[in-house]
Amino acid sequence: MKTILFTLGVALMTALPVQAQQCRLALALALDVSSSVDEVEYDLQRVGLASALNAPEVRHAILSGAQGDVALAVYEWSGFNQHKLHMDWMRLRSEDDIDEAVRLLAKMERSHDDFPTAVGQALGYGATLLTRAPDCTRKVIDVSGDGINNYGYDAPEAYANFPFENVTVNGLAILTQNVDVLHYYQSRILHGPNAFVISAASFEDFQSAMTRKLYREVNDIIFGRLERPRPKSAAGKPG
After folding, report:
1. Are the beta carbons of 21 and 67 closer than 8 angstroms?
2. How many other CB atoms are there within 10 angstroms of residue 43's CB atom?
3. Among 3, 29, 71, 159, which residue's CB has the most CB atoms within a 10 Å radius?
4. pLDDT tens-place string over residues 74-94
5. Structural domain total, the chain
6. pTM of the predicted model as reported, rounded to 2 decimal places
């Protein structure tokens, strides 16, 4: 009888940390599918995001957190009311969980391709999505895109009218258009504690930029609000 009780006690003690495991980060990733993004560029985002999540350093950062696990959701955005939730909140507690998330992201199919860039509503959608996220210590929206708001209300209006208390909004600015996307993200998109922007010189650089961004977000690394774009060679490519 004592042996049975001891065995049951050990099993309960082993199970408790898993059941009581806290969430340290709820991260909502928002991908731009507005009309400025062509099919090739969309695939570079889709594959780049899956590959960034699958990067060894990002996997290690997700699974090695001593203060809880990471919850992830992914949605696309473009015009007013053009949003697609591709991956609802998923707790990434194991290698298998990350494998499943990578699989889902790699097979995403584009939801829209002929709408403008409604940044304000994309942020509002993300804030609403976070209201039903797991109860996590940090809440972050990660917005990536290659343009500035050109339809409907802008980011400041979203921040004033949606639930953004204790929410951080980071940016990944893709520098492919004849507008200062980096400055727009720095001056209009950044919001909340320790917000930062990482830039990608092109959609071909998206995977590398997203990998750096995820690693920094998961680890809550703080070393300044803005990462400058990498210098270009004479041929116009990243040096």
Report:
1. no
2. 13
3. 29
4. 998 776 776 789 899 999 999
5. 1
6. 0.81
